[in-house]
Write a structure and sequence with these properties.
Organism: Methylocystis heyeri
Number of domains: 1
Protein name: DUF971 domain-containing protein
Strand order of the largest sheet: 1-2-3
Oligomer: single chain
GO molecular function, one term: metal ion binding
Number of helices: 4
Shape: globular
Keywords: Iron, Metal-binding
Pfam families: GBBH-like_N (PF06155)
Largest sheet: 3 strands, antiparallel
Helix content: 25-40%
Amino acid sequence: MSVGGEPWPSEIRLLDHGKALRVSFDDGASFTLSAEYLRVRSPSAEVQGHSRDERKTVGGKRNVAILDVAQVGNYAVRLDFDDLHNTGIYTWRYLRQLGEGREADFQAYLDELAAKGLDRDRPGEL
């Protein structure tokens, strides 16, 4: 049942021992998002900051896993990662945006890492 004309999730499932999350929507769209991608694009203030200039590039998350998916009201989920990050609230709309833009956005993340001398295996953030 879409709400307000927006697709609504029909299934959210952890895959590969928490290394990925599959999100399916009632309009037939389905996205498999890696835990690494979800972690580095967390909507939390810790990662996003309070403005675009404050957004952090987080390295060293290639092997992060999702431990738990907790529903937040009727509009989102909170993901608990094994690196103890759990403050991001992923709305249905944000999960959809991440799914639709994952290839270009993940490449942008890789480019940010390279530009800042960070990598996917060493922890660090700028």
